[in-house]
Each structure stands twice: as C-alpha cells, then as structure tokens.
Amino acid sequence: MTALVAWFIGLMAIGVPVAFVLGIATTVYLLTAEAVPLSMIPQRFFAGLDQFVLMSIPFFILSGALMNEAQLTNRLIQFANHLVGRWRGGLAQVNVVSSMFFGGITGAATADVAALGPILIPAMEKQGYRREFATAVTVASSICGPLIPPSIPMLVYGISSGASIGALFLAGVMPGIAVGLTMLALNRYLLRRMPVSEAGADDITWARRGREFFASLRIALVALLMPVIIVGGVVGGVVTPTESAVVAVIYAMLVGLGMRTLKLRVLWRCIVAAAIMSATIMLIVAAANLLGWVLAFERIPQAVADGFLSLTDQAWVFLLLVIILLLIVGLFLETSGAIIILTPVLLPAAEAYGFDPVHFGVVMVFGLVIGLITPPVGLCLFVGCSVGNVSIERLTRATMPFLLLLIALFLFFAFVPAASLWLPTLLM
User: Are 193 and 427 in contact (CB under 8 A)?
Assistant: First the structure.
C-alpha cells in the first residue's frame, strides 16, 4: 500500500492526468501483490463502466452543448438584464443571474465561464469595471452550475454512492440558489459607489420596457424548462436519470431546430465534443473502480472509518475534518475524479456517524467545486484567465471576496443539513 500512495502522489506532482494516475498507481500495486492476478485490471475496468446510469453523462453533456449552440446564451443574458440590469452594479448582477440560469442547463462550471465570459467580460469592461473584477465575477458565479440540477458532479456522486440521484438533484437546489443570491448581495456591497442605473435607458417608457421583459421571458422560459423537465421527470418517477438525459437532448434539439438557431451541420461537432468529455469521465470512472477494489481488498474504508471513530465520537469534529480534507483535495484534483476516489473511503465513515448520504453528497460536491476557482489547478480559474486575458495572480486576488463567501456558505450547508435536505424530504 505504501508503493500505491507513493506512486499516486508522485504522478500527481508531475502533472499526469488523473485517470492515468489512478490506473498506473493501482497497476504498480497489483504487480507487487502476489495474491492478486493481473486479470483483475480489465475485469474491474469493465465492472466500473457496466452501469446503466453512466449513459446519462454523455447525454447531459450533449444537451448542454446543444442548448448553447442554439444561441440561448444571449437570450438568457437579455432576460437577466431585464431582471437585475438596472440594479447597482447592474452588469455584475446580470453576470451572476445568467450563471444561475446557465447552470440549470449545462451542469458544468467550465462551460459557464467559456460561454458567458466572452460576452459579459468585454461588456463589463466597457461599462467601467476592472477586467480582473469582471472575470472574477464570471469565474466565481460559475460555481452555481455544479450545484443547480442537472449537476454532473451530483450525478457522479450518486453513481459512486448509490444514493438517489433525484434526491441529490433536489438537495443541490438551495445551495445553488444561495450561492447566486449571496453573490448578488456581495456585488451590491463591493460596487456600492457605482451608479444605480447603468443601462442609460431612462427615456424608455414602462410600457415598452414591459413588452421587452415579457418577450425575453417567453424565450428564456423555453431554456429554463429543461431543468424542470429533468428534475420533475426523475423525482416524479416518470423517467429514470438516464432516460431524463435522453429527453433533455431531444428537447434541446427541438428547441434549437424550432427556433432555427441550431444548424444541422453543428450537431456532429456537439456530439464529438460531448464524446470527448464523456470519454475523459468514463476513463476516470473505470480507473477509480480498480482503485476502489484495491482499497476494499486492503480494507482501507473500514480502517478509515475505525480511525475516525477512535479519534472522536463527535460527528461535528468528523465533519470539520472532512471539510478541511475536501478543501485541500479540491486544490489539486478535478471534481469528478476526487468524488470517485473519496466517496468509497469517506462515505462508510460518514454513515457510521449518522450522516445522511444525500447530505454528505452535498458536502462533498460543494467542498470540491470550490477548488475550481482556486490555484494551482482550478479549471474555471484557468478558463477565466484565457477568456478574460488576465494573469492568474490578478484573477486570484480578485476572486478572494467571492472565495471567502463560498467557504462561509459551504460551512453553513455542511453543518445545517436541513437547509439542503428539506426540498428532497418535501418532494420525495
């Protein structure tokens, strides 16, 4: 086991992709463990991927790509502008609300930054915002994406833990909304010296403004119905998570083709992009299943659970240790890979302390997605640097107020389970 840990840390230190780190480190262990045949490698790879619910991942990714290609991003921004564009720091508020809307379509934070950044960052800079602040708002608000359903990290945790995916989707609603609303409040404070109205449209009559609002609402609702259909179908028992992902793809295609904003020639490009992203996740799942089998063979999850129980009998102390671990791991590991690695190890201990698996899923996902906006390997941070043309140092400093806010919210939802569990308890 020492060789496994050494290889794992060493490969991560030199920047080897997570999937290969898992596969190589575990293979080295099997080569030194005489009691385990090498034939276990392909067997565990296959067993890890032989789960029907995994088919939902490429379909959810594809549905988000299709909705983006259908040019609904600009329409959602227009609707958000009608809602909050005339508030203090209007464009910053539009940025946050757009991320909340967009998160309900893609479920991925990096897609949020890549789609909204090129549109909103230049517009905010033109309105007088500092470029690093505009980029920081875009990057930080993207955290809504992995929390608001449909959420890819929640789906990965559900597959790894066996928890209800419908309940996990519902449990992510309140944290996702709370992130958005508190960022609106933080923007209002940080931009308290900016003019109340940035739109420069005082000459527009209320009647015209109302017509434009309802016109944008009608189009935005077409996009925002997708998460409602997905979550409602799963929670209501009408469709399985896999079937809901297929429904999402069909809905996205019908919307794009019906509005004549989705061209048939881009379908193949969307399918290829979704296939590449899905293949990356599937490779991590397969390799992590091999690692999980080795950990179970060595009784590591039981040892971790016993270690925590011997260390303390207080559930809140265990939770605090898990929170610290998640924040540290999130600095170095991609979210889905970290979930797949840590769930088999931490969940048995959490259940021994009496934690609900759905609440523990919220804790894991929330804690790990914070790492998306922190160096050294925060994916959203690097996408933001590229999109906003800002150095990593300047962007990191600009995101600090938002990072502190996210950590405070994370602690609240971790130590107050009812805040995230009341919705799945009410509807399931």
Answer: no
Instruction: Write out pLDDT tens, residues 15-36.
Output: 777 778 878 888 888 887 766 6
Task: Give residue 397's Cα distance to chain centre.
Answer: 22
Query: What is residue 198's predicted lDDT score, i.e. its pLDDT?
Result: 46
CB 392 within 8 A of CB 133: no
N-terminal to C-terminal alpha carbon distance within the chain: 42
**H runs (alpha helix) in 162-266:** 165-171, 173-190, 206-235, 241-258
Domain extents in the chain: 39-427
pLDDT of residue 413: 96
Instruction: Tell me the whole-structure pTM to 2 decimals.
Output: 0.81
Which residue pairs, CB below 8 angstroms and at least 24 apart, start in 164-169? 164/358, 164/424, 164/428, 165/53, 165/234, 165/241, 166/231, 166/234, 166/235, 166/241, 166/424, 166/428, 167/358, 167/424, 167/428, 168/358, 168/361, 168/362, 168/424, 169/230, 169/231, 169/234, 169/235
Closest CA to 78 of 136, 118, 119: 119
Residue 139 has pLDDT above 50, yes or no: yes
Q: Is the peptide bond before 376 cis (omega within 30 degrees of 0)?
A: yes
